[in-house]
Structure formats: C-alpha cells, structure tokens
Design brief:
Jelly Rolls, 4-stranded antiparallel beta sheet, globular
C-alpha cells in the first residue's frame, strides 16, 4: 500500500535537487548529539550527510520526536517562504554536514 501512495523515485530526484542546490550556500559540520541553533530568520537547512532529528519540547519539559531528516531533505522552508519562526529543536543523531 505504501508504494501506491509514495513515489520513491520522485523523492530521490527531490533529494538530489536539494543536494545540488546546497552548493550555492554555506556548508557547516556538526558532531553527533549536538543541538543546532539557527539565529538567522532567512535560511533553509539542507542535510548533506548524517541524520537530523526535529523535536519539540512540551510545557513539562519532555522532548517529543516529530520526524528525522536524511541527506537531501530540508528544514525551515515554511518559515523561509511563509514567514514566522520554527519552534522546534534540531538535534544531530549522526555526524552532520548541512547547508
């Protein structure tokens, strides 16, 4: 059923597109288990290597995993194009290289 709804080849092409696009920006490296703080409001994160988790913290201080990003996937695009600020926490799960 999953393959009926999800086009893996299209996903692979999108990931490759973003990896190619990353050559236009600044590449940063982070070690495993680091929290990434982004102070600029105009950014899009493109994961090049490693795994990045996107989490949220409850009012009780509990961290909840929302999703993970793998190479070629992006974060921050909604804030970049629509305005506002993301209130999630970015945490490296493996050594990370990103734009």
């Amino acid at each position: 059923m999953y393959s009926d709804w999800f086009d893996q080849e299209r996903q692979n092409r999108m990931r490759q597109f973003f990896i190619n696009l990353s050559k236009e920006g600044i590449i940063k490296n982070y070690n495993k288990n680091k929290i990434i703080e982004i102070n600029d409001e105009e950014y899009i994160v493109i994961v090049l290597e490693g795994i990045l988790s996107v989490e949220i913290v409850s009012s009780m201080g509990n961290e909840k995993l929302l999703y993970v990003l793998r190479p070629g996937e992006i974060y921050g695009e909604m804030s970049y194009f629509c305005g506002g600020k993301c209130i999630t926490i970015l945490k490296t799960k493996r050594n990370l290289k990103y734009h």
